Amino acid sequence: MRNVIKNYLAVFRAFGGNARNFLLLTFLLSFAQNIFGLVFNLYILKLGYTRDFLGTLGAIPSLTVAALAIPLAVFIGSVPARKSLLASLALSLAAMTGMALFTGRLPLMFFSILSGASAALMAITSMPLMARSSSEKERQHLFSFQFAVSMVAGFAGSLVSGWLTGLSGSLLAAGDESAAAYRVTMLAACALLLAAGLPALKIKEPEHGSKHTGSTFSGFALGAAMVVLAPQFIIAFGAGMIMPYLNIFFKSGFDLHIASLGFCMSLMPLAMAAGGLVGPWLVTKIGRVKAMITFQSLSIPFLATMGFSGFLLPTVLAAFARTMLMNASWPVYSVFMLSHFPAGQQQAASAVYTAGWNLANALSARMSGRLQMDFGFTLPFLITITCYSAATLFLSRRFLKEDSKKAVGQTALKEELE
Length: 418
Hints:
The protein is mainly alpha-helical. Helix content is 83%, strand content 0%. It is globular.
């Protein structure tokens, strides 16, 4: 274990300037967004809106990402990554500030669209940038580190959000679960988001970055791509049923105080961070596809326990385990996906993946808002379990042989870790 940790640290020190700046950007952005996100759903309900409208707001950003990802990939193919990242941060700041200050139905929907536009820019820029800023040996580690960093930031953000909301409620004498206290927390998150602009300014377009203006989708085989992307699209639909409403699930199911809710929610990104760091290790042992299948299969029993135990401690522990296992496969899948496309098509693949994921997730989130009003969380959990099982089965049937035929980067990773 000590050697593994040493090698992880050595890999981190070997990262170039772009990779390090992007990791810092990821931390600051995720920290601010998780402070905001912990209370946003609660804030909307406190304003008097129904869960049906909350489902609409939850679906809008994902639908916007789905609509914009491919057009943006076509038009920003030659735009430096730094400009795309700064534009994404500016849109995110405007969206978060607007949602904190305006309470009308139409303004909230408008700023949700801006939030989706920001996410689209970030998504189609980040994966190709990381791929261009790392060697084949470093790539799995960089993707896993980026995922882990965002989750550690989420852990810290959720803790700070619960504490800050309680403090705001006390200072305002309005109650620590009032709309005013939630708004102060959201505005504080907006202020913190500004810090993410500093590392973004230091990011440079890699010298070996591909310049292929107007040819982002040249030679791109959509049919073959859809086979590679299908397992994640199925997972996206399942995730949309539950994950956007996890704070509501804990709050309504166990009547938690905001500080306790912040603690419970902070465990989820911490679990994701742990899973993200375990991923590269397991890849060296059994290969990428087997690692993804293992993580996803083991997470399903915990998902069922989480949804149906009815007791707080087993639910929290099961949620932690499910989150760690299911999300450990995400950075592994990202490298697996990109390995199926040449460098010149990776931005196109990222755009299609982003559009498909968010479309499936948005439709599911919108459906879940209505299902919760009629069935609570029972039916959404059953749908999620079914989707996760189907995706794992598809991955096993279609791609399991790849581990024996080729192990992309596996030998290099194993030598590095051992």
